[in-house]
């Protein structure tokens, strides 16, 4: 006989009772654990934020821990004539550059060697050339090949670890006038090694030339227009020729860029300090702590260790002070004054501070035994344990519901049997009374 937990026989909704019993047990046993797990997840999220802000601070610290980190310079170009200095020269100043001034003249730009072929009527049809040409020791057969085919073959030789350094292209001068152009990838008078075929199919389009220039009246040549070895820490890029124009290059320390590095450190520290402060803040109206890490001894220890490390450096003289809430303030005017009066001493003071902070930060952020790592690991273990307990309890509730379901099914079957028996007896008595009558 079919059966439904809807209680057709008994008239009782067993399914609804099972659902209500399950909800009661979930509210009693699982929901409290769910709330605990949610709280631990929020605590873990807070520690992850602390970890990220410590990493941001460590990155800022590592950017000023050595004297070379403050080797930032600014440069300017002025012209002795109406010629725009940028049209003759551009400059990149890097680490190790001196504070200095140089007068530069560009008399000749370096040029790459170029060869052109004789004219042919079509780039796609065979050029009618015979023999071989040699490019940097690599032979190219001409017989039966078009300019396009030769271009592709020559460019294929200019690939990989043994590239020729020679580029090929097809130039259309006019209808029926096509030429193969070979160009050295490198500038300079050395050009590239080339041997023509017997038909003398190629001639010089542009001879390779070295760059000629002078710095402070001293004549120099280089094979490239990019000069990296004339002035220490400075890259010159020659862009135009004008022997009658002198370009004056001024190089000075970029104290604003130095201040930006210090400001980045201050901002990173304040981002961390403000977040920690928010964790310890208290809402007088709700009478509750605002942060998930409120009262956490490890977080308070982190704050104290960083503050102590900074206070020990005596940074007031270089423009850094503590405000009442524990954040830092940077007086840029005072910093610029310190840099102007004693650049090396000021840089050394920041180097010492950065190295001290880095030592503290590395113990806090170490991926194995760091303070934050340990705290996160502990919280993660709590979350896993709560998850396991919830899973176990959920399985127990499922088992209990199955047992109750079986009992309800048995009860419903018994009541169905009893109802059937009662119905049979009632029918029997009815037939007896009808027969007697």
TrEMBL record:
Pfam family, one: FliD_N
Residue ranges of every copy of the Flagellar hook-associated protein 2 N-terminal domain listed in the record: 10-112
GO CC terms in record: bacterial-type flagellum filament cap; bacterial-type flagellum hook; extracellular region
Every Flagellar hook-associated protein 2 C-terminal domain range: 208-420
Subcellular location: Secreted; Bacterial flagellum
InterPro entries noted in UniProt: FliD, FliD_C, FliD_N
The protein's name: Flagellar hook-associated protein 2
Self-association state and partner proteins as the record states: Homopentamer.
Residue ranges of coiled coil: 376-421
One biological process term in Gene Ontology: bacterial-type flagellum-dependent cell motility
UniProt family annotation: Belongs to the FliD family.
PANTHER family noted in UniProt: FLAGELLAR CAP/ASSEMBLY PROTEIN FLID, FLAGELLAR HOOK-ASSOCIATED PROTEIN 2
